[in-house]
Amino acid sequence: MTPLTLDALDWLRPNLLGGTKLVGVMGWPVEHSVSPPMHNAAFRHLGLDWAYVPLPVRPQEMPEAVAGLRALGFVGANATVPHKRMLYDLVDALSPAARAIGAANTLHIRPEGLLGHNTDAAGFQRALREADMPPEGSHTLVLGAGGAARAVVYALASSATTVTILNRTVAKAESLANAMADAMSAPASASIEAGPLDRETMARYSSRVNLVVNTTPLGMWPHVECSPWPADLPFPREAGCYDLVYNPRRTQLLRQAEAAGAAISDGLGMLVHQGAEAFELWTQQSAPVAVMRAACEAVL
Fold first, then answer.
1. Is this prediction's pTM over 0.85?
2. Is 6:61 a contact under the CB 8 Å cutoff?
3. Of 21, 39, 83, 84, which residue is the catalytic one?
């Protein structure tokens, strides 16, 4: 995939005037993104005159890039690492989810202004239900307290779930727990707590939880031998395991959980469903989820 630089975007204006609607993904780097083939397959399937392009944007150039997309008539864009927090600060209005999570991964350019959304939380909820791991009423152990964890914790707490966030730096887990409790009107039956990501704490919680969600990059290519779960600690067989990592599809953590007899799911579902949420926001049409998943699987 050849990245499209902002300096080379002038040629797109004739296409815009001809009717082609444009969206894309901003990141640095962005060459690895599977979003362009995923969305373009969906556009082709529905016969839409739309195109989704990769947009490599250096962090310091985000304000200029967002302004450029608006000037060129883009309908919107996605933001990936490291731009979600920056996009949050550059829009005119935020969806409730984006405001609570503190990050925007989707831009919708409207006549009234730039609207920032976060489709990660809804995509995660959709993926859990698709994997037959409904979050309602469960006790979930969230491993990690980074940017991905914010959307996951928001989604879980919105489903009246007890959430325990474990992170090597406990202060970061506590900060996330407090921020999520303050930023959203969590149901009364939901609670968010924090602790250290160590063997002792994981062993203490392993007999109580119904779901374990990995939001850390441990196990991601090329460090496929890594896992956030200690090798000498049996994985709770009654708990489902959802790993946000999707490359490789079967991480070391998922192999540990599967060996214990637990239900497992990789992060492809969240990737597809957060993309489907953005697709529907931009096009106002139902996303062809099966087509989008097949396109991702073909790339991966």
1. yes
2. yes
3. 84
